[in-house]
Specification:
CATH topology of the largest domain: Aldehyde Dehydrogenase, Chain A, domain 1
CATH architecture of the largest domain: 3-Layer(aba) Sandwich
Organism: Winogradskyella aquimaris
Number of domains: 2
Pfam families: LuxC
Helix content: 25-40%
Largest sheet: 6 strands, mixed
Number of strands: 13
Shape: globular
Keywords: NADP
Structural class: alpha/beta
Protein name: Acyl-CoA reductase
């Protein structure tokens, strides 16, 4: 396969995925191999939901819709344009995937295959239904992928490089275990929002999507706010109210009740509105149903803090504050060239 064949195959996958969106499921007979795969993928979505209570149909479909928007021929060509894929010697790249949100490891999977390597995937037990099915679709629309995609539930073996994502604790294990292989090891990161008090209601409402999408389980979810001294949270609480139905979902409600009880018993100061708690805290990783906040005195102070803590931060949501900021409402809509941890995965893969 040449690069254009690989791009064409993923563009076809994007067309297939586009049938499964938050607006509903719509069978498009023009999609290649649809008669073989459409009903089967509906079943995989159902299995994913039954296997993992956090993978609601709404969250799975949002993830699929985001990938459908990314996997167009135009965007794929724009993404790969800066790189030189010539004379690449194909290697086997192992990927150890997280399972916190649906298809969270798909970008690594895509990057390995678009680069021309073979991929060996070890999935999280929390997210094991969607990707193997999509891999089969790829092999049908582009037979050149056959033999280049494999999955394992055992220890990774017979690979040349590895991309592994996990907690800070598992990352220490990864770093030791893979010390003799080229690797990208990803640790815990969280996303923050910097508020000035001048945000419009529309911006704050968009921020609520960054907080609540996927129940806040993703590294791109905003888990902490930086606000000026004497910030009034009324506008923030008004803007996030559109997400109040989330409290009727059992897993979220159980976490809300538990964390609220812990805070009350510990006599922590916090504000809450019946479905979200906000608490002053220096940490970045907040529990489910909670957002931490911290006051700042000046822009220079917060810019220095972001620089110092850069390895803990995935996204900075703001409006005209910093060069690499993400607009309100866009943390869970990354482009193909928005690399996790600011590590260029394709560049890494072209150098192994």
């Amino acid at each position: 396969m040449d690069l254009q064949q690989r791009i064409n195959a993923f563009a076809k996958l994007g067309q297939f995925i586009r049938q499964f969106s938050t607006k509903g499921l719509q069978n498009d007979p023009k999609v290649e191999a649809n008669d073989l795969f459409f009903d089967g993928f509906k079943h995989q979505i159902k299995l994913a939901k039954e296997h993992n209570g956090w993978f609601t149909e709404a969250n799975v479909l949002f993830s699929l819709e985001s990938w459908a928007n990314a996997l167009t021929e135009a965007k794929l060509n724009q993404w790969v344009q800066p790189y030189n894929f010539k004379d690449l010697e194909p290697k086997t790249v192992g990927i150890i995937m997280a399972g916190n949100i649906p298809l969270v490891g798909f970008h690594d999977f895509l990057s390995v295959l678009i680069s021309g390597h073979q991929v060996l995937v070890k999935q999280s037990s929390n997210d094991k239904h969607l990707l193997p099915f999509l891999a089969k679709y790829l092999e049908i629309v582009e037979p050149g992928f056959k033999g280049k995609i494999s999955f394992t539930e055992d220890k990774l073996e017979h690979f040349d490089a590895v991309i592994a994502t996990g907690s800070d604790n598992t990352a220490r294990y990864f770093e030791y275990y893979f010390k003799n292989k080229p690797s990208i090891i990803r640790k815990n990161r969280n996303s923050i929002a910097i508020l000035t008090g001048k945000e419009s209601p529309e911006q704050l409402e968009a921020l609520s999507d960054d907080i609540f999408r996927y129940y806040g389980l993703g590294c791109r979810n905003v888990s902490k706010l930086f606000v000026p001294k004497d910030y009034n949270f009324d506008a923030f609480f008004n803007a996030v109210y559109k997400w109040h139905p989330i409290i009727h979902e059992n897993k979220y409600a159980n976490n809300y009740d538990y964390n609220k009880a812990v805070y009350l018993m510990s006599e922590f100061d916090m504000l809450e509105n019946g479905f979200l708690m906000i608490k002053e805290d220096e940490n970045y990783a907040s529990p489910i149903a909670t957002v931490f906040y911290e006051f700042y005195n000046s822009e220079d102070e917060i810019k220095q803090k972001i620089k110092t803590d850069s390895e803990k931060i995935q996204c900075v949501v703001a409006n005209g504050f910093t060069a690499n900021e993400v607009a309100f409402g866009y943390t869970q809509k990354p482009e193909l060239w928005d690399y996790a941890d600011d590590v260029d995965t394709v560049d890494f893969l072209l150098k192994i």
